[in-house]
């Protein structure tokens, strides 16, 4: 029986036509196999259509991106920096590096890149970025050097959530940076600047809590720095109610951990104030703190206000504080835990006359008061500081009192420390001399650098002058050697022409006169030391000539001959 030859399809398309009943002439119901094949074909076609559609969208996006960035000098570093920063992080070090890279690339980017980055990564994510530990720096950079419209968008969105952001550590820095830039360019962000001013000058329960808040307090410190006179006067009037004044809210800024920073800032900005009303209001606050200094120096945080007056306050405020309050209260405040810090600062910044008055009227007035100070656990520190600033005369009195207490066994552990300190530092240069000299004649770093450069320049000039003199000396030696050679040749030639020695000596004398005239012209480039040595040699040979007996013959020719010998001997000495 013959084997039946199988049917062979020429192509996949023929197989599809035969298996698909919709494409054939048969009217029979399609089988399960037929349905499966047709569904696979339809799915493949749909997949290809989706791929083509995605390719078209991708090409359109590329064209849009090229239209935004490639029209100018394209710098992909900024885009890469933001893409890297928005991805997941591996370590703390990578976070810091990426944040710095973003700021550096933003400074160098052009306007097209900055616009693309802002619209893509920043605009819809401002609040979250301001709360981030590292990404809030890029907002500060945009506010500082970015376009004006970007700055205004950031400040507007942050003002909408200011009650939440003003107490956040990172977002508050962004607000402070924006506030500082707006104060410099108030016309460019007029509406935004006025919103923040109204918020700061508004007095309600929320803002009162910010006066003593760890983070919100920083915004008010910045306001004292950047406010203009009119707004600053209003802010000082608000603070005046809560600084050593009774109020219905029982709010006291001077004794608060963070409220005292506002008082310190008022003391710091006082010399910069111009408006008389504002200056008088600040002066009232400072004088009120001085009048209450006996209470403030014993408080944990308020004592820093008194230290601020001693360090950075005006001289008139400092003198009133020292002469009228601190010198009378020195013994008691030195024995206080916090007052001893103020006592040390008073000794350092008071001046020599005040220290002498303190030693004579308060410290050494009686042995009991001195013993009380050196044996106290807190007062022994200001006493050691006082010893450093005393003169030799008062130091001798200081050590004599200590030795008397030591012999009487009245020194405890703290008193023994003071005794050892005073004995070991008796002959050491006083620290007070360093401080006083630094305050009066301390040169700035620029002056020191200029002085060093001047010294280096003078050394170079000196070296150059010495080198030039040495070169001139060498040139002179070469010229003298050439002259001596020429003179010897002329002497040999002329000696053969003259018959008698006397005629030859007369001719030599004439040549000597010409040579001496040339030598006088060359004396200007010879160093003074060589001139002195040449004069000394001439005197020496003249003296030897006077001692030698004169030969018979022409006396004038013989004198010229001796001068010629002196000149030759001088040239030989110079060559040596």
Automatic annotation (TrEMBL):
Example of a GO cellular component annotation carried by this entry: cytoplasm
One Gene Ontology MF term: mRNA binding
Domain called PUM-HD: residue spans: 60-426
Protein name, as recorded: PUM-HD domain-containing protein
PROSITE patterns to which the protein is assigned, alphabetical: PUM (PS50302), PUM_HD (PS50303)
The Pumilio repeat ranges on this chain: 121-156, 284-323, 324-360, 364-400
Gene Ontology biological process terms in this record: post-transcriptional regulation of gene expression
Signal sequence annotation: none
């Amino acid at each position: 029986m013959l084997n039946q030859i199988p049917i062979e399809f020429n192509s996949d398309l023929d197989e599809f036509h035969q298996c698909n009943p919709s494409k054939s002439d048969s009217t029979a119901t399609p089988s399960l196999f037929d349905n499966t094949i047709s569904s696979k074909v339809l799915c493949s076609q749909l997949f290809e259509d989706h791929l083509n559609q995605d390719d078209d969208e991708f090409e359109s996006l590329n064209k849009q991106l090229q239209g935004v960035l490639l029209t100018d000098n394209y710098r992909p570093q900024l885009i890469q920096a933001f893409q890297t920063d928005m991805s997941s992080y591996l370590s703390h070090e990578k976070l810091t590096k990426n944040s710095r890279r973003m700021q550096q690339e933003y400074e160098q980017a052009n306007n097209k890149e900055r616009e693309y980055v802002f619209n893509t990564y920043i605009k819809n994510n401002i609040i979250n970025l301001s709360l981030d530990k590292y990404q809030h720096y890029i907002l500060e950079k945009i506010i500082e050097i970015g376009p004006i419209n970007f700055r205004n968008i950031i400040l507007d969105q942050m003002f909408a959530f200011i009650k939440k952001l003003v107490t956040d550590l990172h977002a508050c820095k962004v607000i402070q940076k924006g506030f500082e830039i707006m104060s410099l360019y108030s016309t460019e962000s007029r509406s935004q600047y006025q919103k923040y001013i109204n918020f700061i000058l508004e007095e309600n329960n929320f803002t009162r809590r910010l006066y003593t808040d760890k983070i919100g307090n920083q915004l008010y410190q910045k306001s004292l720095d950047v406010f203009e006179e009119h707004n600053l006067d209003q802010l000082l009037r608000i603070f005046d109610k809560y600084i050593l004044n009774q109020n219905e809210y029982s709010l006291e800024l001077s004794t608060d951990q963070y409220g005292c920073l506002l008082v310190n800032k008022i003391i710091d900005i006082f010399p910069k104030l111009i408006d008389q009303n504002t200056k008088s209001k600040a002066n009232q606050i400072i004088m009120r703190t001085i009048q209450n200094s006996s209470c403030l120096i014993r408080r944990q945080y308020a004592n820093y206000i008194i230290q601020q007056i001693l360090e950075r306050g005006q001289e008139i405020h400092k003198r009133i504080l020292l002469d009228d309050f601190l010198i009378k209260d020195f013994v008691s405040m030195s024995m206080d835990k916090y007052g001893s810090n103020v006592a040390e600062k008073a000794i350092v910044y008071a001046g020599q006359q005040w220290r002498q008055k303190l030693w004579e009227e308060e410290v050494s007035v009686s042995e009991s008061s001195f013993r009380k100070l050196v044996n106290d656990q807190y007062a022994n520190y200001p006493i050691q500081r006082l010893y450093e600033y005393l003169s030799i005369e008062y130091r001798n009195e200081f050590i004599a009192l200590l030795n008397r207490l030591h012999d009487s066994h009245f020194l405890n552990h703290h008193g023994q420390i003071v005794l050892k300190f005073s004995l070991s530092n008796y002959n050491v240069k006083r620290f007070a001399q360093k401080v006083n000299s630094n305050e009066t004649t301390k040169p700035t770093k620029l002056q020191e650098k200029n002085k060093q450069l001047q010294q280096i320049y003078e050394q170079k000039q000196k070296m150059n002058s010495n080198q030039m003199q040495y070169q001139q000396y060498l040139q002179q030696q070469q010229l003298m050697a050439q002259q001596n050679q020429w003179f010897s040749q002329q002497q040999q030639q002329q000696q053969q022409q003259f018959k008698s020695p006397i005629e030859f000596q007369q001719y030599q004398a004439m040549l000597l006169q010409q040579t001496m005239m040339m030598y006088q012209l060359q004396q200007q480039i010879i160093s003074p030391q060589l001139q002195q040595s040449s004069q000394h040699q001439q005197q020496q040979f003249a003296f030897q000539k006077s001692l030698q007996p004169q030969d018979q013959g022409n006396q004038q020719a013989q004198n010229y001959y001796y001068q010629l010998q002196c000149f030759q001997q001088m040239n030989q000495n110079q060559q040596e």
